[in-house]
UniProtKB/TrEMBL annotation, chain A:
InterPro entries: CheY-like_superfamily, Sig_transdc_resp-reg_receiver, ST_Response_Regulator. This is Response_reg domain-containing protein. GO terms for biological process: phosphorelay signal transduction system. It comes from the Eukaryota. It comes from Cephalotus follicularis.
Automatic annotation (TrEMBL), chain B:
Histidine-containing phosphotransfer domain (HPt) contains an active histidine that mediates the phosphotransfer. Its main location: cytoplasm. This is Histidine-containing phosphotransfer protein. Functions as a two-component phosphorelay mediators between cytokinin sensor histidine kinases and response regulators (B-type ARRs). Plays an important role in propagating cytokinin signal transduction. GO terms for molecular function: histidine phosphotransfer kinase activity; protein histidine kinase binding. One of its GO terms (biological process) is cytokinin-activated signaling pathway. GO terms for cellular component: cytosol; nucleus. It comes from Cephalotus follicularis. Residues 53-144 form the HPt domain. Keywords: Acetylation, Cytokinin signaling pathway, Cytoplasm, Nucleus, Phosphoprotein, Two-component regulatory system.
Amino acid sequence: MNVSKKTVTGDGTNNSATGNRISVLVVDDDPIIRTIHKALLRRSGMEVEVAADGQQAVNLHRMGASYNLVFMDMEMPVMDGPQATRELREMGVESMIVGVTSRDLDSDIQAFMAAGLNYCFVKPLTIEKVIPLIEELTGNI
Amino acid sequence: MRPVSEKGAKEKATMDAVAQLQRQLVDYTASLFHEGYLDDQFNQLRQLQDESNPDFVVEVVTLYFEDSERLLNELTKALQQQSIDFKKVDAQVHQFKGSSSSIGAQRVQKVCIAFRNCCEEQNIEGCNIFLQQVKHEYTLVKSKLETLFKLDQQILAARVDPGSHVIRFLQA
């Protein structure tokens, strides 16, 4: 498994207290989606880190990283989205977690929401989907 | 009125050539949308390209080509097995559908949807037919995107031709 040191250990820049920029973690096993979502979110002024599966996302949090917003893919190897979401919530992570899925079955989406998501979107993310999230987050900061 | 110098004439010729290439690029891109090869997601990618990310579209599409070739090889192998694992095939087609949709490769995505129906029905013949169809659509969209990028590169090259002095006119 190719895991960059930066991805697993975090680099300390994702502390939500640094500056006014929203910090985001994009969790997805598809490198194309990671690249696209990272560019989209950076364009929107956010600081973006990526993780390739749920386990990496959990590890980042265990090592002290925190984010204002987590985009969680549903289907991933090692640890999938619903499982990672449950673990993060059990750890006490209160960040906004938004599920991202290419599944369109209502039952799948509901099960994912039940794991502890704030919202669930269908892939791929677009600026129209992201803007309301930014508004909600900046309203609360 | 000043006489047209040789330098001025050369500049004009290059600008005309660039303008023609740009028109070609616009027309070609429009045709790809019109014929359904690409959908709006491709436009979303273009909007993410800027000075800080000048090769974004090419980079993402190149990633897509690499990923697709690997997936298509795996799919071919999976369907050649004595005892086909339809769940695995379905998962691979699902992945291909996802990556195709993320770059706006609409026709490939549509074939994947039909392909998955055959997986669900465990229809071997249908799966093989759709494998051929998805390979065909992928090859088509790949060649069209490569043509698009080549046109784009030609425009870029014409702009930065040091003999043309056009760079002063076309830079914002």
